[in-house]
Amino acid sequence: MTRFSETAWQSIAPLYGKIADLPFNRELAAGSLSPERFRFYILQDSLYLAAYARALSLAAARAPDGEAATIFTRSAQGAIEVEQALHGGILERFGVDRPTAEKTEASPTCFAYTNFLLAAAQKESFEVLAAAILPCFWIYWKIGCGISEAARPENPYAEWIATYSDPAFGAATQSVVDLCDRAALAAGSAERARMLTAFIQSSRYEWMFWDSAYRQEGWPV
Ligand SMILES: Cc1ncc(CO)c(N)n1
């Protein structure tokens, strides 16, 4: 049987191409992205990472074995550390103080994506939850590596680029790919189909997250 991860990646290949081609990511790689847009992104991403870390902890709590529990526990800790370290430093450097950061409200896209993940953590099977989480790793790893190859060392966003092209992040990504493949092997075809739907849905939200940051999306009312 074809590995779940292979089927899943094939099903989002055109969408991945669109993500890599987004103005946000092309300008990030070129170093020409406006600081306002990056600041908006980092503020929204802090909110995202806090919710994402909760979804990862819930995945750890629901994991069928110690190996899966360890992967998600470590990932939850990693998400919190990125949120605190990278975001703490970057926000300051881009001129955002703590009170401003704390007042920031989630954009419609950030709100929808985080609630999608947290809803999956509460009401979907562990397998579907893992598949919903997978694009958060996999797409960031691929985008991080792609941008890292294209970017020059003096790129103003080098720290962000280094975080997501770090081989340790690659290893974490691979462990979640393998975990999803194992989960899919044990799942029936209906469950596999639900996993694929969740994987695609998160991937669409990844596109929307970068697009919404570029547009500095707010609530229409
Ligand atoms: C929106 C989003 N998806 C994935 C990651 C990777 O952790 C991130 N930092 N932000």
Structure description:
By secondary structure, this protein is mostly helical. It has one domain: Heme Oxygenase, Chain A (Up-down Bundle), CATH 1.20.910.10. Helix content is 82%, strand content 0%. The protein is globular, with a radius of gyration of 17 Å. The N and C termini lie far apart (49 Å). The model has no long low-confidence stretch (mean pLDDT 95). Bound molecules: 4-amino-5-hydroxymethyl-2-methylpyrimidine.
Describe what is shown at a glance:
The chain has 221 residues and is mainly α. The protein contains 10 helices and no strands.
CATH structural architecture:
Up-down Bundle
Indicate the proportion of strand residues: under 5%
Mean pLDDT: 95
Low-confidence stretches: none
Q: Report, as a whole number of angstroms, the end-to-end distance.
A: 49 Å
Bound molecules: 4-amino-5-hydroxymethyl-2-methylpyrimidine
The ordered H/E elements are: HHHHHHHHHH
Per DSSP, the total helix count is 10
Radius of gyration: 17 Å
Identify the CATH homologous superfamily. Answer: Heme oxygenase-like
Query: How much helix, percentage-wise, in residues?
Result: over 70%
Shape: globular
GO molecular function: thiaminase activity
GO biological process, one term: thiamine biosynthetic process
Protein name: Aminopyrimidine aminohydrolase
EC number: 3.5.99.2
Chart the SSEs and their pairings.
Elements: H1 4-20, H2 23-30, H3 35-62, H4 66-93, H5 98-103, H6 108-123, H7 126-150, H8 158-165, H9 167-186, H10 189-214
Helix pairs in contact: 1-10, 2-7, 3-4, 3-6, 3-7, 3-10, 4-9, 6-10, 7-8, 7-9, 7-10
4-amino-5-hydroxymethyl-2-methylpyrimidine binds at residues 45, 48-49, 136, 140, 206, 209.
